[in-house]
Write a structure and sequence with these properties.
The structure is a single chain. This protein is α+β, with helices and mostly antiparallel strands and 738 residues long. 20% of the residues lie in helices and 22% in strands. Among the domains are: 43 residues, no CATH class; 125 residues, no CATH class; 56 residues, no CATH class. Helix 7 links the parallel strand 8 and strand 9.
Amino acid sequence: MRVRPEWFGALVATRHPAMLVRVNRALAARLGVRHSPLWQGPDPRHLSAPTEVHVVLSRRCSAGCRLCYVAATPRGEVLDPSRACRILDNLAAAGVFHVALGGGEALDLPHLFDLAEHARRVGLVPNLTVSGAGMTEALARRCGVFGRIHVSVDGPAEVHRRTRATFEQAEAAVRRLRAQRRGVGLNCVVTRENFDRLDDLAAMARRWRLREVELLRFKAAGRGAGLDLDLLPDQARALYPLVRRLSLRHALRIRLDCSFAPMVFAHAPLLSVARFFGVVGCAAGDMLAAVMPDGSLRGCSFAGPPEADAADAASLRNAFSKGFGTFRDPPVRRREPCASCDYVSLCNGGCCVPAAATGDPDAPDPGCPRVHERSIGRFAAALLVAFAAFSSACPETKHLQTRCVTDADCGTARSCDAATGTCRCVSDAACSPDEFCNGRSCQRRVGCDTTLDCPPGTFCDLGTRQCVDRDRCTSDVQCPIGAVCDEVRLECIAGCRDNGDCRLGEACECPGGADAGPCRIGACRAGVCADDSFCRYGERCVEDDDGERVCRRDERGPYCQGCQYDPASPTRCPGADDGANFCLLDRKVSWQRTYCGVDCDAGQPCPWGYQCRNILVLTRALCHADAECPAGGRACASDADCPGARCDSASGRCAGRCSYNEDSKSGFCTCTTDTECPRETCDSVTWRCSITRRPCTPGGTECDRAIRCVPLGDRAACFIGRNCVPAEGLTCEDVRAP
């Protein structure tokens, strides 16, 4: 346990359970803190040092990710290792608890683990974020030195590849890390493009047996500058309820980075609860700080001027004590709608990076729902002013205005518009209780815009724009899992309208069944299923004799059963006389484990946890290098004449390449023509072709169709059929029946 004195008492960090808590002075004294100099004088309104510092070890990475906030390149800047060690010493001496190491790709640095071990020696907990590229089993074993390790994954494969090109490597890294330790999670940059796939991301994290997902807000910095990927207003408002449901449904700890605070506070949580749990907005220069590859200390990895040389202990301490002015007291806190917001002391005006992208870094966070609603109100007010100006031109209309020269002519909470010489309101304080300031004049309220417009004990339902008692509801999203909102009594009651309202493993059954139309209120029921996703791995959702849809284990074949692989020819596993269950080589793992697939070439369904995939075999030649692969392809003059292969200079013909996994001792030669693929024969016992399993007669021609040589990434292999194999992100260890 570590205890660090602060003005309010102390911060206490524990390892088991891992937590960081604030305690008052009385409890700090019981924990051994003598009267601290920090307990004297007024509240400084900031910590004596950050609790965590992001150390950007480099701007070096070859992945070229679309949203990289440091715009990393293969030859980017690297923080000198000896200088990095001095910085870690200074951070530890200042009382910092954690350092988050990243880049760039930190795994590309040969001194990464030396730095992590040095951090441990001086009392810091090093955490790590990686893309997954280059994470071998040997490196995964060395990662025990880190506290938490997060792998960057922005969604399922097809979504992830829009921003990064490393999904397979990220997947392999998660599996390798998870095999060695527990503290593994995912980092996801949330954009308007992947927002609708967050449910899929949570489900994938659960399949990978992870406990934590951290959602990071997209910030237009680095390579992402200029990209219009911020959440849409409806997405921003829906974020917090969505995360709450995903956390409960998938039993995950889903963390939101501090820049999402405006989206949380838009739902008006109790201030006392938010303070108790430490829900805060921009924590730059207070709880967080960053060290860049040049060694400079900044308030945030994305923004802010250099405050100190982090390798200089005195400069660092001075910055923690007196620096970070733009973050600790941002001008945005004095601008509307932040100035009149009850949550400004926690939200801190939101994130300045999206604001800077609009050209005004001191503007309120444009992603805040409250800011968005105010901008709509100001647009509406402009229309009203234009209408009023038009009306004033009519001879019968009397238009009374308050003329002014300076703000002093206008009174409290009003200012003088120099362009028109008229007074306008600047906040609701200028208006009567039943009015609000629309940016120019006081307008009568109709309903509410935010919870701040409502009396104590009520909240603003943004669907109806009405103030509602806190123990009431107006929509299902305000109710816990397993309950919905009664539209008559406006109370949460046990029930459901669809499967998403029920706990994991339960299905929503509605009166009259699926054919009765929209479900008014149904009941969550365990032991039944709506589709295969309700079942355990290896099971399918089927109808039993009583017409109930229940989960049953699929007995069609030897799913993931071990087998003896024969590289000389495709090997069949037992079962499925009418198809081919092949012995497959699991290329997701470096030790080349083998397992049985189950035939799905004719469209047979796969159970939950499996998917039907093309089965490809490489040529029968084992190899250790390209030179060992025979040349049997077409004539060539250079490698350019042999796509996915190479030109053998001795024979002047295309030859395969030796394809093997990382850490494998041997590989297989890829094919260049159909003739290099295995041939079918007729089994004289079953009278079926050995590969495609078509009916045949010994000596007949039914099995004479050549197996095709088809592209496999940048290589080529022989297509022989389709089998049910573990779904993307899963291995046989995950899905094999207990």
